[in-house]
Specification:
With 60 residues, the chain is an all-alpha fold. The chain contains two helices and no strands. The longest helix has 14 residues.
């Protein structure tokens, strides 16, 4: 399944370059499609979100 990223401002950015809204939209987009995404990229989005909220290593 290919995900349509037309009009997504974050489509050509890496997670550290994304705004918080873009990061959230990226995570929501892939979740809503069953996470049809390379696992390393999906984890990168999640890790960046956690970093921005100071949650790195939370629960370790």
């Amino acid at each position: 399944m290919e995900i349509d990223l037309t009009g997504k401002s974050w489509a050509n950015k890496v997670s550290p370059e994304m705004t918080l809204d873009e990061l959230g939209d990226a995570m929501d987009t892939y979740r809503s499609t069953g996470c049809q995404l390379d696992a390393n990229v999906a984890l990168g989005y999640q890790a960046e979100w956690e970093r921005r909220f100071g949650l790195e290593g939370y629960g370790d």
